[in-house]
Design a protein that fits this description.
Low-confidence stretches: none
Organism: Urbifossiella limnaea
Protein name: Acyl carrier protein
Helix content: 55-70%
Number of strands: 0
Mean pLDDT: 84
InterPro entries: ACP-like_sf, PP-bd_ACP
Pfam families: PP-binding
Length: about 100
C-alpha cells in the first residue's frame, strides 16, 4: 500500500507539470487538488493529450482511450486517482517517490 508521503508525491508531480506547462502566472500553488483544469481555463484538448503523455511517461502506465474523460484528467486529484488505480501498490510507491 502507498504511504501518505508517497501518494502526496503523485499530486506534487502532477501539480508541477500543470504549473510548468499550463500556468503562466505561477498560480499552481493555489490550485486546489479538486479544481477543474477546464473550468479554470488551464487546459484544452491538446493539453489533455499532453497530460496523458506525461502520465504515461512519468508513471509508466497506459491510459486507454475510454479513460480519457474529465473524471480522470480534469483535476490533480482525478489524475492522481487514475495513476493509483493503474499502478500496483509496490510499483506505485517506487514511481511516486
Amino acid at each position: 500500500m502507498l504511504t501518505q508521503e508517497k501518494t502526496t508525491t503523485i499530486e506534487q508531480r502532477v501539480r508541477a507539470f500543470v504549473a510548468d506547462n499550463y500556468q503562466f502566472g505561477g498560480t499552481a500553488a493555489t490550485l486546489a487538488d479538486t479544481e477543474s483544469f477546464l473550468g479554470a481555463g488551464l487546459i484544452d484538448s491538446m493539453g489533455v493529450l499532453e497530460l496523458v503523455t506525461f502520465v504515461e511517461d512519468t508513471f509508466g502506465v497506459r491510459v486507454a482511450d475510454d479513460e480519457v474523460v474529465p473524471a480522470n484528467l480534469d483535476s490533480i486529484a482525478g489524475v492522481a486517482a487514475l495513476v493509483r488505480r493503474k499502478l500496483p501498490a509496490d510499483e506505485g510507491a517506487r514511481r511516486a517517490g
